[in-house]
Amino acid sequence: MNLATGIQKAIDYIEVHITDELDMAEVARQAACSPYYFQKIFGILCGITVGEYIRNRRLTLAGSELKKPNVKVIDAALKYGYESPESFTRAFTRFHGITPTEAKREGGKLRSFSRFKVQIILKGGNSMNYNIVKKDAFTVLEKVEQHTVIGEQNLNSIPEFWGRAHSDGTITTLLEHASDRTYIYGTCYGNGHSNAETFDYGIAVECAPDTVAPEGFRVNTIPARTWVVAECTGPMPEAIQQLWHELCAEFFPTSDYTPTYEMDIEAYPYGDMTSPDYKSQIWITVVGE
């Protein structure tokens, strides 16, 4: 299943179950990937988070429903997943610009957020620096934390992890034990096709296989895999975010390779990450079709 088809199947599932308590693991299963990778790819292709999409669609449908004469505000609130009329009113007002009570009056203008349909538009003319690399197993020293996609907490928790790593000595310790200081890695273990809503994320360097891990770190073997290795040039985080978009929206839909959803690595060399000449890489495990 290609990326666009998988994301569309998940969107269709969301729409059918829009008034239910949606289980993100089940939504991701429709796209044949883990909740982490579904959330990531959805955001890249659609430009908003899964949570924002669900919220906007529910509030759109709630607005239409409130135009019906026999529908009460509390009924719409409960139907679309709000525990109280007050929380519903706050969300409704932020989205529509008027209260639910005002919406029921004749002439109340509502905002509409339409259902997504994923389309891959082939524009052409763009170039991407990438290689398909069959890499032997290699060893890394890493500090690892578990993150969760529940409530999209990982969108904040991973940047916070990097912030702590720069301030608490983690980066210094990693470099002291590195066998190759070319890159500091962001290693994301995406759980493949599992339904797990948590995943491990590490900050790592390559090290010798016999390295003894300092307290709070671990030595891990990255297995032999085939990787698509793509490079970008430009300041962080904009350049690497753009590269992720190009990979998901342009490269994979037209290539003979499919992500395994097992893991990905972002590779950052030492240097000025705000420089327009800064180069970084994304590594994604793939299989050929």
UniProtKB/TrEMBL annotation:
Chain ranges of the HTH araC/xylS-type domain: 8-106
Keywords associated with the record: DNA-binding, Transcription, Transcription regulation
Gene3D superfamilies the record matches: Homeodomain-like, Regulatory factor, effector binding domain
The keyword DNA-binding belongs to this UniProt entry's keyword annotation: yes
Family annotation (InterPro entries): AraC_E-bd, Cass2, Homeodomain-like_sf, HTH_AraC, MarA-like, Reg_factor_effector_dom_sf
Native source species: Ruminococcus flavefaciens
Name the UniProt record assigns to this protein: AraC family transcriptional regulator
A Pfam cross-reference name: HTH_18
Transcription as UniProt keyword: yes
Source species taxonomy: Bacteria, Bacillati, Bacillota, Clostridia, Eubacteriales
